[in-house]
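Run log // design_07
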């Protein structure tokens, strides 16, 4: 289970997931470099890093999300 995730602001697509903010930022950097390899065309769209607070009893459907920062 990841604690942080990165979401594109325009399409709300999940770009990266990880246990630390540093892991997510590295994955976002890799995603943005993917435009050079023609994997996608959304390299300049803002990315939101969100902290996911899991509710262990209720499951992933009842998790709370808190915006940490926008890259």
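design_07 sequence
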């Amino acid at each position: 289970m990841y604690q942080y995730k990165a979401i594109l602001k325009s399409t709300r697509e999940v770009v990266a997931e990880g246990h630390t903010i540093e892991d997510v930022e590295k994955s976002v950097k890799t995603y943005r470099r993917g435009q050079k390899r023609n994997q996608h065309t959304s390299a300049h769209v803002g990315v939101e890093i969100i902290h996911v607070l899991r509710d262990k009893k209720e499951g992933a459907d009842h998790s709370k999300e808190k915006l940490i920062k926008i890259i």
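The CA atoms of residues 6 and 15 lie 5 Å apart.
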